[in-house]
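Bug #77: duplicate submission created two jobs. Keeping one. Sequence:
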Amino acid sequence: MLKNLQSTTTLNNGVKMPWIGLGVFLVKDGEEVISSVKAALEAGYRSIDTAAIYRNEEGVGKAIAESNVPREEMFITTKLWNANHGYESTLVAFDESMKKLGLDYLDLYLIHWPMPSKGKYVETWKALEKLYKDGRVRAIGVSNFKIHHLEDILANCEIKPMVNQVEYHPRFNQKELHDFCKRNEIQLEAWSPLMQGGLFEEPVLVEIANKYNKSVAQIIVRWDLQTGVVTIPKSTKSHRIAENADVFDFELSQEDMEKINSLNIGKRMFADPDEFTKE
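Kept job's structure:
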């Protein structure tokens, strides 16, 4: 039941993950990320999503350390960057992230991109399995993996991914991938759910927002939840952080859900995971 910001979905290993978290992509390390994370925790968020490449793990860690929220109530995610694919280099990169975050354990560790040009994501997955078996991380998963990348992992793993974090928004709802993940008990998670503000003027969404007396951002977050997708909207403004998560006092009708689904054009805003090779 979706009651509040602490409401969770249960991953395939039994770990509970909040439906809504704060994403900190492009949030500057230091005061900006510290204040953003603190604002989120004060607003009731318990899930924070960062990554090695965001270069703000230290600030996230500082905010966690200075918070009054008990660590065991938080769900902290970070991600392995592309340059560190490979078994041993993954283990080293994980240690570096943990040192920056100042944590004894992590809640979720993700392979940030499949990097098929390197051909090491299966080997990299083996390192995540070790970290999981050693109790250093409570759940493991991937990010930006297409169906065929997931099939490679599933054919070669001891422990299947618990999460796949991907670009997901009304213009790109990845239905086929979502259905595949559901069949394989992999929780889909949306990054850039608000399309970096690119949907705020969309007439269909504006009309629905007016109907429910909510913002377009709130409508999109609610749509994510009702489609069974974990979501991590990003903001650095405390009032927006709180507003984005004020979505538990209404429910979108099936008709309105279908109107939002109809906005899908199957087009990415960002890189195709088969072509993204940045290190």
